[in-house]
Structures are given as C-alpha cells and as structure tokens.
Amino acid sequence: METVLNILLIRFGIIAGIVVVVGLGAFALIVSLRRRGKGERVREGAAVLAKSAARAMDRRGARGVRGRVGGEVVRQAARWLDEDPGRKRSGR
Predict the structure, then answer these.
(1) Residue-range domain boundaries for the chain
(2) Membrane spanning segments where (predicted)?
(3) Residue 87: CB partners within 8 Å, gap ≥ 6?
C-alpha cells in the first residue's frame, strides 16, 4: 500500500511540475510577444480559435457536466477576447 501511495505522489509531482513549466513558458511567450508589439495579432488569432472551438462544442452537443462547463469556459474566453476593454487603453 505504501508503494502505491509513493507512486501516486511521484506521479502527481511530475504532473504538477510539467504544468508549472508549461505555464511559465506560456507567460514568457506572452510577455515577449507583447514587448515586440505582436500581442494584438496573437489575441485576434486566439479569438478566432476560441470561437471555432465553441462552435465545435455546440455542434458536438456538450454531454455531461464537463462538456457543459468546458463549452461555457470556451464561450467566455471568446467573449473576453472580443470585448476586452484593456485593449482600448492608450500608451501601450
């Protein structure tokens, strides 16, 4: 029993480490793109991708709680990318 718990703990640690590394990499990528002035172009591409993902989830008919929650998250992300008031600030 102790061996199984150790294996599960090690697996959790590896997965958590991977999530942290991917998150830091994504953050660094976003910061570098914004400094180069390409943030708006990336935002537009992400908005298109989120809209198409939302349409695909609607077509597929989100089944179960996870499907409904995932579809709602994608729709909210698409809405946020389209209507973000932070883009309208001057000086950046």
Answers:
(1) 1-37, 38-85
(2) 12-33
(3) 40, 43
Distance CA 44, CA 28 (A): 19
Higher pLDDT, 83 or 14: 14
Residue type for 46, please?
A
* Of residues 85, 81, 86, the one with CA closest to residue 46: 81
Q: In this model, does residue 16 exceed pLDDT 60?
A: yes
Is 82's pLDDT higher than 90?
A: no
Q: Would you state the pLDDT for residue 91? A: 47
Structure tokens at 83: 């209507």
Burial (CB < 10 A; 0-12, 13-18, 19+), residue 19, is exposed
- In sign, the C-alpha dihedral spanning 58, 61, 64, 67 is negative
Q: Can you list the positions of beta strands (E) in 1-92?
A: none
State the DSSP code for 90: S
